[in-house]
Amino acid sequence: MPHFDRLYNFACWLTHDRQEAEDLVQETYVKALKGFSSFQPGTNFRAWIYKILRNAFLTSRTGLKATATLPLDLEGEEEILPAVKETPESILLQRSDGQFVQQALEQLPVPYREVLLLCEVEEMSYQEISATLAIPMGTVMSRLSRARKALRNGLRPQFQKG
Amino acid sequence: MVCESWKAKLDTYLDGELPEQEMHTFDAHVRGCPSCSTDALTRVQMKRTIQVAGKRFVPSTDFRRRIERSITPKPHRSFRLGWMLASATAVVVVIATLTSTYVGSWSGRDQASRDRVFSEIADLHVATLASSSPVDVISTDRHTVKPWFQGKIPFAFSLPELQNSEFSLLGGRMTYLDQTPGAHLIYDVRKHHISVFVFQERSLSLSLKLPASMDENSLSSKQLPFNTETWSQGGLRYFVIGDASAADIDSLAKLFKATS
Does B70 touch chain A (CB under 8 A)? Predict the structure, then answer.
């Protein structure tokens, strides 16, 4: 089963619920098998199957709820801001063993969480992310930038405690 | 700050998404700039931490098995496959019987050759449908499927326009009959799959040639699990076979005849 483990991981991050994630993955495979004729050979299979999973999530109860509470300026043409120097954060990252990062990731709105996971965990190119999320490349870049900034902000309280 | 313009693109650089020339320029700058290299290191560390933290959930063995069961052929499917193979054998036997009645004037050798042709065709049809990847070119568009065969088979053929018909094209693959390359097309009509085989008549050995008298006859009866039809047109030999009704097989054959 291609991408099974990774699809499950991605589904868990989207839903925050293992049972729901299992349902989502099952639905994805069923839809992929049924609609395989719509897959164009030569195009990106990974982006295609992730798109199916994401669309299934967006139409699920959890997905509808999550996307109904999005910040209004999510797709604004906000300037891509440079990060501040965060050497102390890097020390925290080493010390936290990823636990704080997991918590900070969980707190991110779905659009930020999914774009970060596709880029960092799935190591998709911007083009693949663009195809998966059905958004332009420019939006991929700006959304990634904001997601990273939001994650850093989410880690800041931990940094202050540390 | 001099470096602000660089830092605005630092994430894109670390994601490997800058144009090649700009990547080289960036490399050179980061090596020589303590501020940017420190920032880059921090961001790389963040990327790695997210990568590790993000690989958090592992599916249970039970769930994996459940999904595997749901997407792989089930026992009743195996039964169906067995039934299809048995049916294919039955087709061959019955066709052999029917043809011996219809063409009593044929020599034993002709009859055996013809039986072998339909045995091969039935086998190709069943084996293809049982395959996990029945077609090599997946498309409902004849303008995609037809060019795919270009350079793969030593002849050209036309595919019918299916608009306003109940048939839909699922795709195609290369096939061989008696060491002769040909086209195998799969169509769908009300969830029944129909195979259309096209070969160059003169390439088929003489022993495989069907007599002209059989060309327009459907080689099936209502008792058979498969219906078949064959004809020769424009130097090409066509075979249509499937578990759809004889009328559907005939309709598809007519569409091809009208196109060829």
Answer: yes
CB-based contact B170 A148, cutoff 8 Å: no
C-alpha to C-alpha distance for B109 and A139, rounded to whole angstroms = 71
Q: Please report the ipTM that was assigned to this predicted complex.
A: 0.81
Per-residue model confidence as pLDDT tens digits over B20-47: 888 999 888 888 888 888 888 888 888 8
Is B11 near chain A, with CB under 8 Å? Answer: yes
Predicted pLDDT of residue A78: 47
In angstroms, the CA A141 to CA A143 distance is 5
A140 burial via Cβ count (<10 Å: 0-12, 13-18, 19+) = buried
The answer, for A21 touching chain B at a CB cutoff of 8 Å, is yes
Are residues B180 and B99 part of one domain? yes
**Contact residues, A window 114-143, toward B, CB-based 8 Å cutoff:** 116-117, 119-121, 123, 125-126, 141
Q: Is the domain of B190 the same as that of B232?
A: yes
Question: Residue B174: enclosing H or E segment and its boundaries?
Answer: strand B168-177
Q: How far is A71 from chain B (nearest CA, A)?
A: 23
pTM for this model (two decimals): 0.52
Check if A156 contacts B (Cβ < 8 Å). Answer: no
Angle, to 10 degrees, between the axis of helix A87-96 and the axis of helix A99-107?
110
Give chain B positions within 8 Å (CB) of A90: 41-42, 45-46
The answer as to whether B9 is a domain residue is yes
Query: Are residues B164 and B94 both part of a single domain?
Result: yes
Give the residue among B196, B122, B190 at the shortest CA–CA distance from B159.
B196
Assess whether B251 and B149 both reside in one domain: yes
Domain architecture of chain A: domains with CATH: 4-68 (1.10.1740.10), 87-161 (1.10.10.10)
> Of A12-16, B3-7, B101-105, which gets the smallest average pLDDT?
B101-105
pLDDT per residue as tens digits for the range B134-174: 888 888 888 888 888 888 888 888 898 888 788 989 899 98
